[in-house]
Amino acid sequence: MPRVQLQNARLPCPNRLIRPLIRRLQPYVPGEQPKVEGLIKLNTNENPYPPAPSVLRAIRSAADARLRLYPNPTADGLRYKLAKLYGCAPENIIVGNGSDELLEMAVRCFVEPSPCASARTPAGAARCMVQYLTPSYSLYPVLADMHGAIKNAVPLNPDFSLPSPQQLRRGSRWRFDAALTFITTPNAPSGRGYRTAELESLCRAQRGLVVLDEAYAEFADENALALALKYPHVIVSRTFSKAYSLCFLRVGYFIGHPELIAALHKIRDSYNVNGLGQLAAETTLDHLDYYSANFGKIRATRQWLTEQLTQLGFHVVPSQTNFIFVRPPDRTAHQRGGPNKAARTSGSAEDWYYALRERKILVRWFDQPQVRDYLRITIGTPSQARRLVQVVREILRC
Ligand SMILES: *Cc1c(COP(=O)(O)O)cnc(C)c1O
Asked: Would the CB of 100 count as within 6 Å of ligand 1?
């Protein structure tokens, strides 16, 4: 670097230009995207199958001189198609640069930054509150912190099932008046599905906004879309990333009451959804059969992998998603020839994460209280699943 001859003492120090809130902020940690030859990548819940051939063709044929033009600002073509699919109006829908963008906009749109006018009273605090169950999507606390909101993280039941409103009332930590409540359904990282009926009774008990984050709904037996069209304070969030193999293009959407959606449109970037993404998502909706077939394959592989790992002594949380959440066998469960050998045959979830990684299988392990004993494994192709089981057997030496 060239030597700087300026009078540094009189120039502002970059660190002091940053808002204290941002300086303290712990950012979201995305799963790794390593470029390693032959790596089986089961760490970020990407779909193992490519987009439909016509989607790829549509993207290719749109990549010409038209790239110099701005895309449709409100993704109208896509909103109309989605509205038709779900039997609602385009005014019920807003499209985002991935659903992540919309989750962030929801915090800005519906939650007062703290300290808001009367954050000292419980009702005032609730207006500044982002509430969620743990474990769930680890982006929510980051979004709350970025905004200076108050976080209210309330644990799920130990088996990751959803506490009923009665249970939440007894627990006394849950706030039925929280400005914004995020519910990941089916849950991530546990993979557990929630019945629409239980979600409905929770929504009915809430006085603030509820966002049902259905990033994995297409892999589940049930979804709660109807609640977004029935209740004025419920929004359903969906994405083309996981089920429709379009992570790369970043397209997600919210469905909800037109007044809420109109408010979100006010704070949207003018051209928030890129043109190729809009086109790819629209074309996707013309080929839903191709994708249903993939959902079927992923569910079948999920079933097979669940059975195999269960037989090998893993606890597998029943999954309604394109990943499974597994607790490796007890250290002592695979003892052969006395306790000394036990440590060698199996270890903690963290040990398993590294052991698999050494053998070129990348899964996700979260160093957080409720989930430290688990691994999250994306459902890949059948051959990736077979390889995983083979490697697990090698590690267990059985
Ligand atoms: C992947 C994921 C998202 C984000 O999806 P994008 O549309 O790619 O931004 C949102 N919520 C959950 C629970 C997810 O797992």
From this structure: yes
